[in-house]
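>> received
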Amino acid sequence: MTKEILELERDVAQVVEGEFINIKDSKVRSVEGGHVEMKRVCALTVDGEKVDASQSAACIIKAEELNLNRAITVVSVCGNVSMNSSCSIVSVAGNSINEVSRSAVGVMAANNIKAENTSAFLMIAGNVEGNVKTLLDWRSALALGCVAGGVFGLMKMLSKR
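>> returned
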């Protein structure tokens, strides 16, 4: 399906391609486009210049600019990310993760992170602003890595005997 402006509502599709894509209440395997708007959509992969996802779920999102509003992603790789009441397992931004509000993230990585009332397992950033609760800081991540490496090395030595 290739069109300049594509609107999909209450449908199931394999591949959706277009310059401007508006999807509502649908299931899609793959979305590729310039500007992608999704509302109540379940998608496997989304690739676009600008992606706006509201009340949606996606496994992999790749975009230059990503806006999540009450959405769930497994992996998002973007230039800039904004999240509001969303959940992401891994969120990597080339530039910044800004305007993260009331969200939960497994791993956040960016040059700049600006967040309010957000929880994260691990954050990797040059500059962090706002109220963020993390499970691992750099000291505990280092300790966890040393313990995991020691256990792995011990198991490797014991398996050779």
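>> The longest helix spans residues 138-160.
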